[in-house]
Design goal:
This protein has five helices and two strands; from the N terminus they run ααααββα. The chain is mainly α. A two-stranded antiparallel ribbon has the order 1-2. Helix 3 crosses helix 4. It is globular and about 55 Å long. The model has no long low-confidence stretch (mean pLDDT about 90). One of its GO terms (molecular function) is DNA-binding transcription factor activity. This is Winged helix-turn-helix transcriptional regulator. It holds the Pfam family HTH_5.
Length: about 110
Amino acid sequence: MTHGSVLARFGHALSDPTRTEILLSLMQAPGYPAELADRLAVSRQSLSNHLACLRGCGLVVAVPEGRRVRYELADARLRHALADLMAVVLAVDPEHCAAAGQSGCC
């Protein structure tokens, strides 16, 4: 696995707003699918699909607890990495990013 492929998987995971919100929620504390779905106001099926993607990317793990499954970040260092990413201030050049004034630019 190359550094580029690791960053590409991370970028893919963050490219969807729901997956980003899941990661931000799991930064605070582990969560259960039903609670995460309610908190993020998404259907349980949609949340399940996003969690599967995040598991596939290696960013979250499912921890069985009896009949329930708890989700958490796969590595404690992800908490720090996400916090560092949020602390970065990006200067967007409107000339090269037509949607600079809209959310979801670039």
